[in-house]
Amino acid sequence: MKILNKQKLKDLLNSLAADATVYAPVKQDGVIRFQAWNGDQEIDLTDNALLPPKDLLFPQTEVMYKYTANGMRAEITEVAATAEKQVIFGMRPCDVKSLSMMDDVFLTKGYEDDYYKSKRENTVIISLGCNEPAPTCFCSSMGVDMTEAEGADVMMFDLGDKLALEAKTEIGENLLASASGLEDGSADKPAGGQCQLKVEPDGLAEKLAKMFEHPYWEELCRKCLGCGACTYLCPTCHCFDIRRKNIGEKGFQFRCWDSCMFSEYTRMAGGHNPRPSKKERVRNRFLHKLQYFPERYGKVACVGCGRCLAKCPVNMDITRIIKELGEVAINE
Amino acid sequence: MSDPVRKQLEAHPLVPVVGEIIKIVEETPDVKTFHVTTEHGKPFTPMPGQLAMLSLLPVGEAMFSITTQGEDHLEFSIKKTGMLTDALHEAEVGQKVGIRGPYGNGFPVDFCKGKNMLFIGGGIGLAPVRSMIYHCINNRDEYGKMQIIYGARSPQDLVFKEDLFENWPKVSDCEVNVTVDRGDDRWDGHVGFVPQFIEELGPKPENTVAIICGPPIMIKFTLPIMEKLGFTDEQIITTLEMRMKCGIGKCGRCNIGSCYVCLDGPVFSLAQLKNMPNEY
Q: Which of B250, B256, B261 to mutate to test the interface with A (most CBs of A within 10 A)?
């Protein structure tokens, strides 16, 4: 185990930044975001970042390839290059867990998404355990261990004026071996905090399989504005659109985050839309997280980070919805 | 699949191979069939019923059924319905296009072996069915009697006229029945809707698989008649459409329940569809 005096945090980040771009939670304008470390930012390890760092692996917009086209001619001139090395510093266990879902989507079922894969393979994760979960956190109900992020290369604990860092993979070991500011030492692993919100998602997928036509969805969708904020904040939401931009003869194809809450998302060229109203879209969002994803990949597509319920403008609360879905009566 | 194409699509599944339109057939006023190939020849050899992403690079990309294939090319029959298809309809022979695929499960060719094949199509719905018709023709010994029942709004809206009136009637043990909703002065064939036409023809369900594709309204009225004729849900196979962007089960939008139409479809039996949410 390595110990870092927090006053030497800059030394550590500077040394990590020598070989890779380091992304760390930085407080700016009152908001914590993952930003590329430039040697002089205010690192904030108190709360989780406003947005999950998923855009570092799955950018909000990402050029896929470039082309030239003119009349009958067309040619692909450049396919996006492979990713460079990056370190994500201070990623919380819930967000680390979300990567297992992103991996399922982008790397399994017959096709590997090369854009994601290249970034994933070039990313080192230093996770920070949570001593004080936010009031909106419910990760412990979603199988997250606040003190042990499965998939992290280094696990880190906040000891007040110090940080303890423990390598979990060979990559993590090598990283710590060459990093500055660290001293050998030992410390007791903090117990991890307690989530105030609790839900019981076990067995829900089976029940939901019988609830597609349930009147609950009619009621639930009423207050949703369809703004899509929940899908943009969610560390496990992975839907994307593919679009293009032309500048004269040249152009590029890019992908960007999309949202199942938008009507255009499923509307076909002929005008038909299988999910024409909020009811179908809200239902699909929750069934995707709680039934479809478990059926397809064997896990619930929610890590309990609480961002959607913290930021929803009309207070749609997935924990309340999970509870209600568990309680509501169904006709077998 | 040709080797350079396979390698490229394996390395970058979302990046198309550039190909070229080598022939365009005007089927109807709003349907054209495009023959597409690449400098490496036919980009891949799809199973009947499979799909491919076709693009005009500056305009966009969309998923189409591969209506059939030749030795050196793939064929797409495309109805003019949106931005990309409008632009495709303006394209000429020699136009460079992007292509990637093949995607989806295709028709269950092994399940159909040894069975009589009933093909029912309405309008442009004959396009995906045509791939299976040609598969049966090219492997004629492996399948029983073939019957093709097809209808369109008017005689000029009938697609694949050469197949319907010249090629397919000459195939051994293959019956072709064509109807139109409204005839014209020169039409001396059957007039009437597809569902009623099926009822009149009364195809037998014994050892038969029915492959049905057409507009939703046709499907809606056809299914009760099939049931009346004695076809079970396992004997009825159809192919679905959904909006798609990636084609490889990542972008999220073509799901019906936990099923992705681009990977697990587009071909489903009626028995499968009845176990899925009614959201397509």
A: B250
Q: Which ipTM did the prediction report?
A: 0.93
pLDDT tens digits, B134-167: 999 999 999 999 999 999 999 999 999 999 999 9
Set out the domains of chain B in order of their start, with CATH numbers: 3-103 (2.40.30.10), 109-239 (3.40.50.80)
Question: Do B62 and A269 meet the contact criterion of CB atoms below 8 Å apart?
Answer: yes
Q: For chain B, give percent helix, strand, coil, nearest 5.
A: 30, 30, 35
B259–chain A nearest CA distance, Å: 8
- Quick one: how far is CA A242 from the chain centroid? 20
Q: How far apart are CA B185 and CA B176, in angstroms?
A: 22
Neighbours of B2 (CB within 10 A): 16
Q: Cα separation of A225 and A44, whole Å?
A: 32
Q: Which residues of chain B neighbour A242 with C-beta distances below 8 Å?
A: 14, 61, 245-246, 251
- Out of B15, B255, B280, the one facing A292 most closely (by C-beta) is B255
Contacts of B257 in chain A (CB under 8 A): 212, 287, 291-292, 295
Closest CA to A88 of A40, A122, A38: A122
Q: Which residues of A touch B11 (CB under 8 A)?
A: 114
Give the nearest chain B residue to A292 (CA atoms): B258
Distance CA A180, CA B53 (A): 50
Q: Look up residue A270 and give its two tokens.
A: 């002929």
Answer yes or no: pTM beyond 0.90: yes
Alpha carbon separation from A51 to A55, A61, A179, B202 (Å, rounded)? 9, 15, 27, 61
